[in-house]
Amino acid sequence: MDQWLRNTNVVKVLALIIGILLWAVVHMEDSTLAGTGSNGVREEQISNVSVTPKYDSSQFYVETIEPTQVIVTITGKDAALKKAMNASNYSVELDLTNISKGEHIVPLTPVGFPTNVTVKISPSSAKVIIDEKSNKQMPVTVNVTGIPAVGLKAGQPIVKPNKVTVTVPSANIDAVESIRADVNVEKAQSPVTNKARLIAYDKNGKVMEMVAINPAVVDVEVPITSPFTTVPLQLKLVGEPPRGFGVASFVQNTDKVTVYGPQDVLNRLEYYEGPSINLVDMKEEKEYSFNLDIPLRNKVTQLDPSKVEVKIIIVPSVTKTLEQIPLSIVGQNDGFDTKVVLPEGGKTSLIIEGAPALVEKVKAADAQAILDVSNLPPGRHELSVSWNLPTFIKKAPQQDLKATVEISARPTNAAKR
User: Fold this and answer.
1) Is residue 151 domain-resident?
2) Residue 341 is assigned to a structural domain of this protein
3) Alpha carbon of 374 to those of 182, 325, 334, 368: distances in Å?
4) Are 158 and 189 in the same domain?
5) Which pLDDT score is estimated for 30?
6) Spatial separation of the C-alpha atoms in residues 101 and 131, rounded to whole Å
7) Residue-range definition of the domain harbouring residue 267
8) Which candidate among 42, 89, 300, 359 keeps its CA 20 to 30 Å from the CA of 56?
9) E strand or H helix at 320
10) Which of 285, 316, 347 is the last residue in one of the domains?
């Protein structure tokens, strides 16, 4: 070995080899530390990092954030950068907790990055517009679409709850016109029950996006029934209380009824005839109470309500004479003249009977005395007077009133000349 080291050629070769090795080592370090400063620090960029606003969402609404994404540049040693790049909980925060309603420029804050790296955000701040939230209660409207099965009809929807709380930016609170649920009843044969999502609409019928509805979903039931209509309920009164008694009060708990049945039957209904009540047997001074079934008539399938409650108060009656009641003629032939001969003046009198409070209010103008001359030939005729009197007012007994009329042909134009 000593002999080799004394050989200058061997030493030169060894020096060359060592030099090559040192060059290789230095070159490898330079390649490994590319982008690294003299102190071993380098930087990395993270693009498209979302800006996360921090605020009280129950009181405020963020209208706009500009920009919504930023570039984050982190600087540090290699191990720290790798740790930062692999982290999943970092973010760029926009702290609005102490910001009031309006437009603001707010600095951006890095959150969740390791402490041994330097973080730079570009841009470093964001422009934000925030508004206060307002609440109001609104009724739920149900939009029923589709047509039920043949012969059936969709009834009034039932909504639970029927009112909801709407939360919206204060600037838009008056723009919310309706809260609507859509339910389809196409070809339905039985009630349709759905959980329906609610949507807010403005005055032009457009959907409003910036509206929170609580609850957002409601239960809706749409009854499916026969066609129906609502008409007055007419009770049939038979006879009248005996002499000496009158009806002081007549009260029914409902004066209308919803009638279900074929559409052609409903189209002809102006009122619905209810049960009959016989007044003839009411011979005592008292209150009579009835709970009566309303009968189904003429292909009607259902009534709502199906019963009617009636209270009738009977009291001792009084009488009163109505003077100077004009006699009305009905059924006249256009080719004849008809006039009342007796009683003179064409007026008569009548004694009426009824409950004191009702009789007191009746005047002669409230009573109609009628003479029917239908199909009578020319000449004089004695006719019985028929009467049209106010409700629960009757003619006192033993009054067979008659009148005489004279019917004559009208002169022709030739006879006039």
Assistant:
1) yes
2) yes
3) 61, 21, 11, 18
4) yes
5) 44
6) 5
7) 228-316
8) 89
9) strand 318-330
10) 316
